[in-house]
Design a protein that fits this description.
Blueprint lengths: L1 H13 L9 H16 L4 E2 H7 L2 H9 L12 E2 L5 H27 L2 H25 L24 H25 L7 H6 L3 H19 L3 H21 L3 H18 L5 H14 L2 H16 L10 H8 L14 H34 L5 H17 L9 H15 L11
Helix pairs in contact: 1-5, 2-5, 2-15, 5-17, 6-7, 6-9, 7-9, 7-10, 7-16, 7-17, 9-11, 10-11, 10-16, 13-15, 16-17
Length: about 425
């Protein structure tokens, strides 16, 4: 609630421009996504609900005991099987999109470097706290609070390793991009390894420490999907550097710097435990996810048009989970499949349009940017790709902190610079 109120105040002050110029298709599709979620909590006549979402009556029949001589059935019902959860999802989605629009407008006037520095500081503190806390109190949040879920493995403020990894895979490329932005802004042209070492200042060392510690936290989390997503993000960063750097040896230099960062980060990780988890992934494949995906696909098929309701996946699984009940499926472990099950075609279509429009807009901004801030754009775009890959196996974007950072990253990747800040701070 404080986050939603804060974003509402920011929107009232900033009054962001929406659906203007090259962002029209993206912004309109985001509004359509909000409309789809909002439609799921609009009370409808029972006959209309029956026609649009016939499976919802079967879930109601299973989950609710009949009451003899009880209150009459409501004349109006929502498409969502859990209207309260969907209402919260709508409020959060509205806040994330509002934050994206405000940040995009603010970055057009400046402040993007300040945001990158803030992420670097937060990442440095987060990784340090999470590493120490998980080693000393693996079942507590901040050494004090015990999570509701008995099987939770907290990392700092995050209840599980995968959500922690989601934040890191976005932040790491952004911090690396900021370091390269500073070096290009300062016009450093030193040749040779020794000469380049002499140009390193205190801020460079701080950014390197932040990136290495965050990478160490990512490896130490043992989140397989997070590590794969992080690798995809760094590969994307090197690939995007070809847009801005014409000389092949400089691209190799970027790749070598990232390789050194990973090598240093391994000092913070239990490589033996990581190797065991990766080997299990290779041996079992998607066996651990197949049962969840199968049940989720069945639910998505029965609610193909309107979905069970955004945020209502957990309640739907009370009926659709067919496998072992030793564990309860509160998430689909696939962001795209869960979105389809919760929103159906009503939500999936505008989401697909928003994704295509967003990719096209980011590509256009990257090609047009010839300033040192290109590296920050590339870092933000790489972080988005990293999360997109991780989301094949996880649902880290269900955590508000991660969604807020994702909105900021999207704003960095898509803002249209009115004024280029060339300071090297």
């Amino acid at each position: 609630m404080p986050f939603c109120l804060g974003v509402g105040l920011l929107c009232a002050i900033e009054r962001p421009s929406v659906a203007g110029g090259g962002t029209r298709l993206l912004d309109v599709s985001l509004l359509a996504c909000l409309g789809a979620v909002g439609a799921q909590i609009v009370p409808l006549p029972v006959s209309a609900r029956q026609a649009l979402s016939p499976g919802s009556f079967e879930i109601d029949r299973v989950l609710h005991f009949p009451i003899v001589n009880g209150p009459p059935v409501l004349a109006l019902q929502t498409l969502s099987i859990d209207a309260d959860s969907t209402a919260w999802a709508f409020a959060l989605a509205l806040s994330y999109i509002g934050l994206f629009w405000c940040a995009r407008q603010l970055f057009a006037r400046g402040g993007i470097r300040m945001m990158a520095r803030a992420v670097a500081w937060m990442g440095l503190a987060l990784a340090a706290v999470a590493i120490v806390q998980h080693a000393t109190a693996p079942d507590r949040l901040y050494w004090y609070w015990r999570p509701i879920s008995a099987g939770a493995t907290p990392y700092g403020p995050f209840v599980n390793r995968n959500s922690f990894a989601t934040w890191l895979v976005m932040a790491i490329p952004l911090v690396v991009g900021y370091a390269l932005t500073r070096r290009q802004s300062r016009g450093l042209q030193a040749r040779g390894f020794a000469a380049r070492l002499t140009t390193i200042d205190a801020v460079d060392l701080w950014l390197a420490a932040s990136a290495c510690l965050m990478m160490g936290g990512l490896l130490g989390s043992l989140s397989r999907a997070g590590i794969i997503g992080g690798a995809a993000g760094l590969v994307t960063f090197v690939w995007l550097s070809k847009i801005h750097v014409s000389k092949g040896h400089r691209i190799i230099g970027v790749a070598a710097a990232l390789g050194a960062m990973i090598a240093i980060a391994t000092m913070y990780a239990n490589m033996g435990a990581l190797t065991v988890r990766m080997n299990r992934a290779l041996e079992l494949g998607v066996a651990g996810r197949r049962a969840i995906w199968s049940d989720t696909w069945q639910m998505a098929g029965d609610f193909w048009l309107t979905g069970v309701g955004t945020g209502a996946y957990e309640r739907g699984m009370l009926v659709y989970q067919q496998g072992s009940r030793e564990f309860f499926y509160n998430h689909a472990h696939n962001e795209y499949l869960q979105m389809l099950a919760e929103g159906g075609a009503l939500l999936a279509v505008p989401v697909a349009v928003a994704l295509v429009a967003g990719v096209r807009l980011v590509a256009r901004r990257l090609r047009a940017d010839r300033s040192p801030l290109f590296w920050l754009r590339a870092g933000a775009a790489s972080g988005i790709i990293a999360v997109a890959v991780q989301s094949i196996w996880d649902t880290g974007l269900r955590v508000p902190a991660n969604d807020a950072l994702f909105a900021v990253m999207a704003a960095i990747a898509t803002y249209d610079a009115v004024r280029i800040d060339r300071s090297a701070t």
